[in-house]
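Need tokens for this chain, all 106 residues.
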Amino acid sequence: MPQRPEQKESIIIEKSLKEAKQLALDSLIVNGFELQEETDNYIQGKRPNKIGFFVGSGGETIGIWLESISEDKTSVLIKNKKSFVGYVGQQNWEREIRKEMLGVNE
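Here are the structure tokens for all 106 residues:
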């Protein structure tokens, strides 16, 4: 499990750790990520590489750290990492994952 970044701001989900973790897993799937790693407090997914308008798009990795604050509150930290190959065609998925977890529709 990668070390939790200190400089990033986390969001608070009004759910238990178990429920927040399921929201995180669901949000990865909805956004086209494949699960790579899962522990009690960490989830990592990766978007498959694609060939298209931008050669090598896809390939982004996202890490989600979960920390229980109370029985019904969980701190969630989302960190996106782009790969070197296809960097131009890749995007930052933190906002999309966050919106999905919070149930925000735009």
